[in-house]
Amino acid sequence: MALRSTNFKRSRAKTNICDICWGDEDECLCHKSAAERQAHVESFHAPTAVSDRTSKKTRGGVSSKGSAGVDVAEEPDDVGAIRCITHDRDSANVTWSNFIRTSKYTPLTFLPLNLWYQFHLFANIYFLAAAALQCIPSISDSGGQPLLLLPLIFVLAVAAMRDLAEDIQRHKSDNRENGRKVTRVLQRPDEHGSYTEEVTWADLGLGDIVKVKRGEGFPADLVMLSSEDESGMAYVETMNLDGETNLKPKMCNVDIMNDINDEKDASSFIAALTYERPNTNLYKFDGEMTTKGRSYPLTVDQFLLRGSTLQTTAYIYGIVVYCGDQTRIFRNSADTGTGRDKLTKLMATYNHHVITLFVLQALICIVSAVVNAVYTTTNDDWYLDVNASDSVDGGEVFLDALKVVGTLLLQFTYFVPISLLVTLEIVKFFQAKFINEDKNMVSGGKPFHSRRLGATANSSTLGEELGSVTHIFSDKTGTLTQNLMLFTSACAIGTGGSDSPLLVRKSQQQGEATDQARSLRPDSTERDHHVGSDFDIELFKKIAKSSSGVVRQRFVDFLICLAVCHSVLIKADDEDDEEAAEGTPPETGRVHSDKLYDASSPDELALVAGARELGMEFAERPTLNSVRVNLRTDFAKELMGLDVNYLDFELLDVIEFDNDRKRMSVLVKEKLPATTTVSPDRRHVQDRVAAKPLGQKVRESCPHPRTLLLIKGADSSMLDVAVPLSDHEDTELSETLATLAANGLRTLVYGARDLTDDLDFVKEWREAYSAARGKIGDEKKNAMHECMTRMESRVDLLGSTGIEDKLQDQVPEVIKELHSAGIKLWVLTGDKIETAINIGYTGLAGGGVLGG
């Protein structure tokens, strides 16, 4: 599949960043003379009050009217230099431009630069030198006329026209990018009383507060200040950055969000931001924001990258922290200079052959000249007009030898075919056109629609590199698979094992999958990406109802964990209706009922779909720190032991998933409704504690609100933090996971830690975790790791789930074609080893493609 993505390329090599001003170290004065350096530093640190912002100039010649200021707060010799931005234009003293330029040439530089880059090719130098030799009458084979210049000029002209055509497209792309519109918040209302203005992306500067609406791209790297969503969350699409189609959740600080309710609040917002220097890390951001005398930590959760797009949320307010070539996407751009600094493999081979031929030609000419000199000086044949009795003049012999070398060099010039250069340039140009127009190189599936994307050749010089590909490294989820997640298995510890009926999906029991097994609305249109469930709900209910004691409590906490431990958002249904009306499918999986769910991962949507089918429906996030779950069936009410319609959970803290821990956990507190009617079984069991093997204890059927750590993750990571199971339960869990993996399912293990009796520990831990998030750099990383380790321990395992992600259509056939072309496919996946192996053999290795 070919995906079109925005790929910014630097118009020049990446510059070194000045520790003081963050500008180009080669252009600034920071590392020059002491006097210039001192004047430069003072210009940054001097407390100036600028009333007329229009007099300020920005780099790149873009007006900085309305831009916020930048105050460099660190000492100039600090190697870990950090920047402090004050959103206060009256105290601003430095601005940077958000103008970008990816084109190679300007009208003035095109001719000299293009010739300079073309003469990096040795063949062009070779023919230029040959043309120069033709100007010497004594050795010329063209009467002193440089006739080789004609074909050389033609070759250079063809290459120049190709470069010009490509660069014109880059200029157009730059103009489109720089000219895109965004809403910027003004410091004071304009003559019409408006607190916002529409400006181009190029007009933005550091510290500007912008309002980005749903479907719009972020014009620079931003820190999110406020969101339209009451929970303070927003989802962004980062496909242009990392190729992933899953949406990424972002969350603003709730205290800062409360200060910015509208454009007027945003215009009066003043804060100092201290954060890290520009770098290439897309998944890390550390900083601190100080406003109204309080400091708040800044993390990647608030960091919005240029190149990504806002989704699901009507709008957000953000402040510009990196702009122009300091943004992450530019720092990660391939350092290819202008595209001529690095030769392709084919051209490099051609260059080496030309050099080899030249060396061989020179050796032949030198040997021939030596032989000629010896022959003419030792023979007195009359036709040589040499008198053997005359003395031999060494200088004259040497000059004659040089003439012979020059003459033979011209005669042997055609060792290097100059027409090959023209042929290569023309072939590369038309190859790029064929790639752009190839109807078979498209993504989006067989049915053609407007969102189908084709391959794009951004540079005609790279087409020949496709022929040198020997390995393809591919992600599995969303690339080889459909992101069509089916919740196929849910099993609590005590009811599993290799022969458990809960491990058999419903469609296998019935012989075919049913549409009712999917969580789709009957009146909804068919989607490219959706999720659902395919497991026997009635069997699960039957086994859960018949359970007792510890196993029953596991079922209770298991369902709570499914419904609460996630980052799913609920959006208004009209967003989906708009997409359906436009005939464009959503970019992420969605569970359809009377609510519309959005998440960064289809796995979470499938888990929410499964919990909903079992009666535990994730209903809403009433506030940023709370979750509501509807008990939509009698089974759910009976299992919870409560005669209520919903349960509220206070979200005390969230420990996000990361690739090192491979798990996610949430710290919650039950909030039972005031009108709770407790079932007789639960009313008469006051804090009954059931003894478990190895000293484990679990609160069963307690009517009092509990404080729980709910956690889910990969089996290997969960076993590291879990209370050891009994031998029988450990064997059962291992067999369950092995069976799910053998069926090619994605597995997760769930656990809970009851902290109701450890509230002092919870309070102390929350304070330590909040302080850790406020740190910067390695200190923050170490402190947070210590806090996570303390909380994620002594976890009681609850059960496991299995989710299926089907392969894309024709994936085995495509892999077979790649194999026949001698290309090996390596699939990168986060699944457990057994799952990855079984998927490889059952789904990808048809016909022995991956056998071996």
Give a brief outline of the structure.
By secondary structure, the chain is of the alpha+beta class. The chain has 24 helices and 29 strands. Among the domains are: 173 residues, no CATH class; 132 residues, Calcium-transporting ATPase, cytoplasmic transduction domain A (Distorted Sandwich); 232 residues, 3-Layer(aba) Sandwich (Calcium-transporting ATPase, cytoplasmic domain N), CATH 3.40.1110.10.
Structure write-up:
The radius of gyration is 35 Å and the shape is elongated. The protein contains 24 helices and 29 strands. The strands form seven sheets. Strands 17-16-28-27-26-23-22-21-20 form a nine-stranded mixed β-sheet. α2 (110-118) crosses α4, α4 (149-178) packs parallel to α11 and α14 (549-564) crosses α16 (602-613). The protein has 852 residues and is α+β, with helices and mostly antiparallel strands. α12 links the parallel β16 (481-492) and β17 (531-533). Among the domains are: 99-180 and 345-381 and 397-443 and 456-462, no CATH class; 204-335, Calcium-transporting ATPase, cytoplasmic transduction domain A, CATH 2.70.150.10; 487-501 and 534-571 and 594-673 and 704-802, Calcium-transporting ATPase, cytoplasmic domain N (3-Layer(aba) Sandwich), CATH 3.40.1110. The protein starts with 33 loop residues before the first helix and ends in an 8-residue tail after the last helix. Residues 518-529 have a biased composition (Basic and acidic residues). Mg(2+) binds at residues 475, 477. The active site is at residue 475. Residues 506-517 have a biased composition (Polar residues). Its EC number is 7.6.2.1.
